[in-house]
Amino acid sequence: MPDSNTNVIEIRNLTKSYGKNRGVIDVSLEIKEGDIFGFIGPNGAGKSTTIRSMLGFLKIDSGSISILGMDSVKDHTEILKHVGYMPSEAWFYGDMRVSEVIKYAADVRGLDCSEEARKLCERLKVDTHKKIKELSLGNRKKVSIVCAMQHKPKLFIFDEPTGGLDPLMQKRFFELINEYVAEGATCLLSTHVLSEVNKYCKNAAIMREGRLTMLDSPKIDDETFLSFYDDEG
Amino acid sequence: MKTILTKELKLNLKNFLIWSLVVGGMGFVCILLYQSMETEMADMADAFSNMGAFSDAFGMSTLSIASLKGFFATEVGTVHGLGSAMFASILAIGILSKEEEQHSAEFLLSLPVSRKKVITAKGLCVLIMLVAFTAICTLLYCLAFLIMGEGIEASLFIAYMLRVLLMNIEIAGICFSVSAFSGKNRMGTGIGIALMFYVFDLMGRVVPDLKDYLFIGPFSFANASEIMSEIEPKDSSFIVGIILTVLGVATAYWIYDKRDISS
Asked: How far apart are CA B201 and CA B164, in angstroms?
């Protein structure tokens, strides 16, 4: 059972800029074990910058990030063993077959995830024989979901996961998240879809112009949600 | 790391085979052409060796193009030297940057593997491919010699192939560092680097003022005509080669480990 007092993600005063351009400013955030945390905000607000800083793709200017009690810089590789990440673009190697990509991700982790991968492919209807370059965005996203979930990580980080997925697959995707979270996992969900935040998230935060504000509740109405995207909101 | 290396070898296999077979095949055909051109070459040899700077640049002033050794040095030497340098540069300049260009960097770097290991695996892939490229070309040239029933001294031939391999490793090392800097595949830059070194060497052999600086370029110690004429290159050319290779690879590690990865 998840321990809702343990912080899985702990970000303290994170600042990251791209030269003269703003990235994120003084972001602090805590996400507890077992949470499905909604991360919303307009394009360019800094959601992806925060996520990419957490995963070590970006070198942070100041602040600290602790994931699963480990330092994101010093223990970077160890953290990634327990994280399942799905990027918004979901690109792989075009000439590889789906089955090869899924096995490759497991092999780099040094794990045999074939049974879990088979189950996930079955539920998400993934055609493992096709080459990546033959897949639509939605089908690439399904492959990305399998790669992120097959090793049963403690923390999921999804960056706009449902774009391109058909409604049935979106439903199955959230069913899977709920199942893994019930087993003790935690999920950070960056999304633009209000219904996903309302329906699935336990907590949420909004990013605007590089700054983060916690929401009192993820249950918000359309007007409030859209006001977050308004420059003057 | 082994998994990444295997994947890299597989993904680059097609390009590797094309380059090996095209460059090796051209050298193979060049060698076989010698027999049919032997008589004409004998007539042209004098003319070719008395063309001043042009003869110097292509080594025809020290070797007779009418001999197989001279023909190999001038014809195959140019094809193999330039072809292999271009292969080395194209391979190395794209090996790191292609991950960002094809948007697979986030997938790769979200797996539990350090960037240093990624660089090591990709660097090893380049090295293995350059060695295998040299082996395939060597086999094809040997096959041509066998078919002709005539060859050149094994020690000179092996020395040439090994020195070109060293040259390719140096060019690859330099391009590897460019690849670490860039989020885009700079294939044009890679070809430019290989051609720049080739032209620098060519110019250095023609322009007297540049002769003293030939050692800076990697073609200086892999010049087929000099090797076939048993002219030893300056030690400084090897030292510069080693320094540039080490600097290139070290820069790649340093930069790639520190910089932001684009999505």
From this structure: 14
Tell me the ipTM for this assembly.
0.89
- Segment (H or E) for B13: helix B2-49
Give how many domains chain B has, as a whole number: 1
- In this prediction, residues A118-144 reach a mean pLDDT of 93
Q: With contact defined as beta carbons under 8 Å apart, do B134 and B84 qualify?
A: yes
Is residue B263 domain-resident? no
Does B70 fall in a domain? yes
- Predicted pLDDT at A233: 47
CA dihedral A208, A210, A214, A219 (to 10 degrees): 30
In a domain, B213, yes or no: yes
- Name the β-bridge partners of A16: A24
Q: What tokens does A186 get? A: 């935690």
For A87, name the nearest residue in chain B, comparing CA atoms only. B106
Domains of chain A: 1-76+156-163+187-233 (3.40.50.300)
Q: Which of residues 31-70 of B touch A (CB under 8 A)?
A: none
| CA-based nearest distance A185→chain B, Å | 18
- From residue B141, alpha-carbon distances to B26, B41, B77 in Å are 10, 20, 11
The Cα of B260 is separated from the nearest Cα of chain A by a number of Å equal to: 4
* CA nearest neighbour of A210 among A71, A67, A43: A43
Domain hosting B226: range is 2-258
Interchain pair B263, A87: CB under 8 A: yes
**Cβ pair A126, A173 in contact under 8 A:** no
